[in-house]
Structure prediction request, 95 residues.
Amino acid sequence: MAPLTIDSSGAYFRSEGVTPGTGNFLCGKSPSPRDDFDCYDRSLLQNADPTLFEDAIWPALYHRVPAFGSIKVQSSWASLYEYNTVDQNAIIDFH
Prediction:
């Protein structure tokens, strides 16, 4: 598996797949505290925000790696993850 690169802006990326050079990348961005709201309605996650890539993720990726200047979104998804609010480590199982 390829290493995950995390930019100081919160944007991250890694190549996707086991075959190097496929040209596919997994990328995203951690929300700022101002934009990170509690979500209790899973229906809000039916579709990923289509503007997030163009407005927040792509500029950070392009700044870090100019070769990303012409990348395009092929697919997207949204999800929730649980974490401990004390140290923000993942919750693995029932406690």
Notes: The mean pLDDT is 80. The CA atoms of residues 61 and 68 lie 7 Å apart. The beta strands are 5-6, 11-15, 25-29. DSSP finds one helix and three strands in the chain.
